[in-house]
TrEMBL record:
Keyword annotations from UniProtKB, A to Z: Iron, Iron-sulfur, Metal-binding, Pyridoxal phosphate, Transferase
Alphabetized InterPro entries for the sequence: Aminotrans_V_dom, Aminotrans_V_PyrdxlP_BS, Cysteine_dSase, PyrdxlP-dep_Trfase, PyrdxlP-dep_Trfase_major, PyrdxlP-dep_Trfase_small
Needed co-factor(s): pyridoxal 5'-phosphate
Reactions this protein catalyses: (sulfur carrier)-H + L-cysteine = (sulfur carrier)-SH + L-alanine
GO terms assigned for molecular function: cysteine desulfurase activity; iron-sulfur cluster binding; metal ion binding
Annotated family: Belongs to the class-V pyridoxal-phosphate-dependent aminotransferase family. NifS/IscS subfamily.
Organism from which the protein derives: Candidatus Thermofonsia Clade 3 bacterium
Annotated protein name in UniProt: cysteine desulfurase
Length: 393
């Protein structure tokens, strides 16, 4: 970084800083109240009481029962448990049929790779729903894809790469009509959108505390009472047998404090960030040649702007912005000198020469108008530099 300006963080979809009140709430559980929540003595009982309280707070925030909340080690684990837990339950109930899973080609790897492994190693049949040019699924395609042997549908609430929101509530209603368990990865949403499991018609929902101003290494899985589920991890009987392993009490307390913190900020921040985001999008589209918005123009996360630039290497652009002190992200990855476009962008029909130049700018509670102005000022020359380098190459 060569600038003397304060660094600008515009990668809130990757992670968020822990809010001071969240770290204060967690503090006692690293030291004085360090007990194992499974122990019977009073150290354990104090930890168990904190865990019960955290579960109740999260249940309440999601309009779920406390008993339907399972703490996990991260969002990836919550997604893994959801898909495997339901698939294994279906396999146990009907060992004769391979079973069929429906998901989308725009899921995070936590869902995509799990579904793929359930297909390749466990023999589940897999349908990837089509998405349109904005990355959205049509609920009618879900209805058409459901079969007698469908055991699970998984469609994310908000896409991490392009910010597009999916019609989860409608998809959930279709799944419920057909008696098929429905999971959504809602990991990108809670800091910016309200999440009520009843309104979304979901049976399973995954969250990750570090995306809403809580600590890393804590996930939440909502499992609606009565959903068929076989614990994919084996061990002790923690979390009512749904996720074995000594529970991270400080982390659970932090997740609960973070969900309360973000619920208080959410509506005002979503309105403020939508304005900033739209100004950013209009500014970029007006000032940079050969650029397109990726994802849905309006049905997208309030904090999320994403673009593709023709004939630009995404990693070079990211590094050019980093030199200017601005942290963003790209969907393309360069493995062994060979740039690879994001499969999400390709699934949306974006041509390879555009998809290689993807840029994600995600705003957060601490983002200021001045930071957006600086990005708008710096970006055209960074794109020009990265484009010149990629054309030379
Ligand atoms: N799902 C989505 C949509 C995400 O954005 C992420 C993280 O980027 C994950 C899953 C994984 O969450 P975690 O980092 O807590 O494992």
């Amino acid at each position: 970084m060569s600038t003397t300006r304060r660094p600008i963080y515009l990668d809130y979809s990757a992670t968020t800083p822990v809010a001071p009140e969240v770290s204060a709430a967690m503090q006692p559980y690293w030291s004085d109240l360090f007990g194992n929540a499974s122990s019977l003595h009073h150290f354990g009982r104090d930890a168990a009481a904190a865990l019960d309280e955290a579960r109740a707070v999260i249940g309440c925030a999601l309009d779920a029962r406390a008993g339907e909340i399972v703490f996990t080690g991260c969002g990836t684990e919550a997604d893994n448990l959801a898909l495997r837990g339901v698939a294994f339950a279906a396999r146990r109930a009907n060992s004769g049929s391979p079973g069929h899973i429906i998901t989308t080609p725009v899921e995070h790897h936590a869902v995509e790779a799990t579904a793929r492994q359930l297909h390749t190693l466990f023999g589940f049949d897999l349908t990837l729903l089509p998405v349109d040019g904005c990355g959205q699924v049509n609920p009618d395609d879900v209805r058409r894809a459901i079969r007698r042997d469908t055991v699970l549908v998984s469609v994310m609430l908000a896409n991490n790469e392009v910010g597009t929101l999916q019609p989860v509530s409608e998809i959930g209603a279709i799944c419920r009509e057909h008696g098929v368990p429905f999971h959504t990865d809602a990991i990108q949403a809670p800091a910016y959108l309200p999440i009520h499991v009843g309104e979304l018609n979901v049976d399973l929902l995954a969250l990750s505390a570090h995306k809403f101003y809580g600590p890393k290494g804590v996930g939440v899985l909502y499992i609606r009472e009565g959903t068929p589920y076989v614990p994919p991890m084996t061990g002790g009987g923690h979390e009512r047998g749904r996720r074995p392993g000594t529970v991270n009490v400080a982390g659970a307390v932090g997740a609960a404090a973070a969900i309360q913190y973000s619920a208080r900020q959410r509506d005002a921040q979503a309105a403020r960030l939508t304005r900033l985001r739209d100004r950013l999008i209009q500014g970029v589209l007006a000032s940079v040649p050969d650029v397109r918005l990726s994802g849905h123009p309006t049905e997208r996360l309030p904090n999320h702007a994403s673009f593709v630039f023709k004939h630009v290497d995404g990693e070079s652009l990211l590094m050019a912005l980093d030199v200017e002190g601005i942290a963003v992200s790209t969907g393309s990855a360069c493995t062994s000198g060979n740039p690879e476009p994001s499969s999400v962008l390709l699934a949306m029909g974006i041509p390879r020469e555009w998809a290689l130049g993807s840029l994600r700018v995600t705003l957060g509670y601490h983002t200021t108008e001045e930071e957006i102005n600086i990005l708008l000022d710096v970006l055209p020359r960074c794109v020009a530099r990265a484009r010149a380098a990629s054309l030379e190459f």
